[in-house]
Amino acid sequence: MDRAIVVDHLVRDFVVTEKESGLKGTFSSIFSPKKKAVHALKSISFSIQPGELVGFIGPNGAGKTTTMKSLSGLLYPTAGFVQVLGFDPWDRKNEFLKQIAFVMGQKSQLWWDLPAIDTFELNKAIYEIPDRQYEETLNELTDLLDAKKYLNIQVRRLSLGQRMRVELIAALLHKPKILFLDEPTIGLDVVAQARMRDFIYDYNRKYEATILLTSHDMDDLVNLARRVIVINEGKIIFDGLLDELTNRFAKEKIIKATLSDEKNIADIEKIGKVKKLAFPEVILTVPRSAVALAASELLQNFPVEDLTIEEESIEDIIRRVFKGEGVKTKLF
Ligand SMILES: Nc1ncnc2c1ncn2[C@@H]1O[C@H](COP(=O)(O)OP(=O)(O)OP(=O)(O)O)[C@@H](O)[C@H]1O
Ligand SMILES: [Mg+2]
């Protein structure tokens, strides 16, 4: 099979009932409800090769979760075509379900009042995992996530980071080939986040699993995904290498300087956009094409002790892409 995931002109609308404010609104919404269509996915297309790890990013409400639900067969498309490992996800065939996992950082699939190991046993039965394989995979995942001490504790007593580790074991016991990870690092502290990232990286390598990952954390993307798909208001506005995205959208460079004298310091704004001016430190942003000129003007006209030139942060770049500049500059 050449492509693990194929999405072709996928459309998904939701019909929502609008309620006017106040009691009157409540009555009229009961007796004559006003329906409104939400166009969550407006004909999106992309495909993913087996073994790829792709970052799927976009602002709140862009359509990421809706796409993942459509790919795992939880939502039926309004129009368009979706195929995952050659299956129509909507059929939810056992053979299909045995090869995928859908992990949502904000939703638990574990029983809260029982220790995680009980949910694992249930999943073993559901996915018909043979005893030997179950033991092996459980040990392997437990080691990878360093989670042995949490398996026998009632889930509700675990911290978020501890729970996410057992959550992943539950989702991956059947060794799925395709992972839909919807904000798996949300709410985790930096240590837990790094552990989760390492795990995703290793799982992708070790099992040649295909992974579609959403995250609002740019560090996740920088560390994990070479390719990113950017979605905004139900449309894909970029699909390509993360490097290419940042190169194309990084318009400015940041000049940081330390001065030895405050004289004429206000004139510095003639050189670039002042981000910070707190003697002895000055931070300016300048267009990429003007950086050499700006740096030399600074050196010639001001008592510079130290000077560095940096790239814009990836957060700033992505924020600009989300604002829709990607659409205007025609990325395809
Ligand atoms: N079950 C539903 N009923 C009605 N509207 C829905 C439903 N699910 C999603 N939507 C709407 O579809 C759009 C896309 O939602 P979706 O959850 O896919 O966004 P998202 O990209 O995952 O956002 P976030 O980053 O906040 O998780 C939103 O406008 C949302 O309100
Ligand atoms: Mg979402």
Alpha-beta content class? alpha/beta
Radius of gyration: 25 Å
**What is the approximate shape?**
globular
Per DSSP E runs of 2 or more residues, the count of β-strands stands at 13
Hetero groups: adenosine-5'-triphosphate, magnesium ion
User: What count of helical segments does DSSP give?
Assistant: 11
Largest sheet: 6 strands, mixed
Which consecutive residue ranges, at least 5 long each, have pLDDT under 50? 327-332
H/E element sequence: EHEEHEHEHHHEHEHEEHEEEHEH
CATH topology term of the largest domain: Rossmann fold
Count of the domains: 2
Distance between the termini: 26 Å
| Residue-averaged pLDDT | 90
- Looking across the biggest beta sheet, what order are the strands in? 5-6-7-3-8-9
Which strand-content bin applies to the residues?
25-35%
- Determine and state the CATH class of the largest domain: Alpha Beta
CATH superfamily of the largest domain: P-loop containing nucleotide triphosphate hydrolases
| Helix share, percent | 25-40%
Structure description:
The protein is α/β, with parallel strands linked by helices and 332 residues long. The chain has 2 domains: 5-13 and 45-246, P-loop containing nucleotide triphosphate hydrolases (Rossmann fold, 3-Layer(aba) Sandwich), CATH 3.40.50; 252-311, Alpha-Beta Plaits (2-Layer Sandwich), CATH 3.30.70. Helices cover 36% and strands 29% of the residues. The chain contains 11 helices and 13 strands. Strands 5-6-7-3-8-9 form a 6-stranded mixed β-sheet, with helices on both faces. The two termini are 26 Å apart. Residues 327-332 have low confidence and may be disordered. Bound molecules: adenosine-5'-triphosphate and magnesium ion. Residues 64-65, 182 line the site of magnesium ion.
